[in-house]
Amino acid sequence: MLFTASVVFSAAGAMIALYAGTSVSRVAVGEGSYKTTVPPLVALVAQHPFITLALSLGAVFGASFVRHIKGVNVVALFGMATVLGILFAPALFVAQLSAGMGGTFSASPIRDAFILSVVGFGGLTTYALFTRKDFSYLGGALTMGIFVVLGASILNIFLGSSAFGLAISSVGVLLFGAYVLYDTSRLLHSDDEQDAVGGAIRLYLDFINIFLALLRILSARRD
Q: What parts of the sequence cross the membrane (predicted)?
C-alpha cells in the first residue's frame, strides 16, 4: 500500500509541474504546426540539471535516513515521491512533445511506458512472492550493473548518440527488473528488512527507473 501510494504522490507531483502556471507561460516549443507551452516549473527544473540531481539524491537519502522513525518515515516517503515526481516532469514533457511532433516508437509514450511498467513490475513481484526463491545472489552483479549503466550514461553525455542511449535504456529495463526480484526477495527472506517504508522506497525506485527507461525507448524517434 505504501508503494502504491508513493506512485500516486509522484504522479500528483508531476501533474503539478506539468500544469501549474501554464496559462501565464510565454515560452513555446515545437516544430511546424505543433506548438506547446512550456510550464514554468518544468522550465525551471530543466535549466538546472545539477541542482535537480542534488535534490533527487537528497530526497532519496533523506527518506532512507528517517525510515525507522514512526510517523516521520511515512511523511518522508510521500514527500520524496512528490519531489521526484516534480523533478521527473521535464522527461514527461519532452516525451509528450516528441510524440506530438510524430515519428516516435509510440504515439502515447507516457501511457504505454506506464502500462508496461505496471505489467512488468507486477509480473516480477508476483513471481518472487509465489515462488519465494532467494535472489540475494544477484546483489553483486546488480551493483556492478549499476556502475556500468552510470558510466555509460556519463559517456553518452559527451557522445550524444541516440542509438547508444537506447541501448543504455534497454539495459536499464533489464537491470531494474532484476532489482525488483532482488528487493522483493530481500523483504521475504532477510530478518533485518522488516521496515515497510524502507521496502517501499526500494520498490518505488525500481518501478520509477523501469518507467523512465521505457519512456526513453518509446519516445525515441523511429529514424
A: 46-66, 73-93, 113-130, 137-158, 164-182, 203-220
Q: Which residue has the cell 508503494?
A: 3
**Residue 107, phi then psi, degrees to nearest 5:** -75, -20
Side-chain half-sphere exposure of 6, counting CA atoms within 13 A: 29
Closest to 111 in 3D by CA, of 99, 122, 121, 102: 99
Beta bridge partners of 35: 30
Please report, rounded to a whole number, the percentage of residues in the chain having pLDDT higher than 70: 94
Tell me: the pLDDT tens digits for 61-72?
999 998 888 889
HEC readout, the chain: CHHHHHHHHHHHHHHHHHHCCHHHCCCEEEECCEEEECCHHHHHHHHCHHHHHHHHHHHHHHHHHCCCCCCHHHHHHHHHHHHHHHHHHHHHHHHHHHHHHCCECCCCHHHHHHHHHHHHHHHHHHHHHHHCCCCHHHHHHHHHHHHHHHHHHHHHHHHCCHHHHHHHHHHHHHHHHHHHHHHHHHHHHCCCCCCHHHHHHHHHHHHHHHHHHHHHHHCCECC
State pLDDT tens for residues 168-209: 999 999 999 999 999 998 888 776 556 788 989 999 999 999
- What pLDDT shows up at residue 100? 81
C-alpha cell recorded at residue 133: 526463491
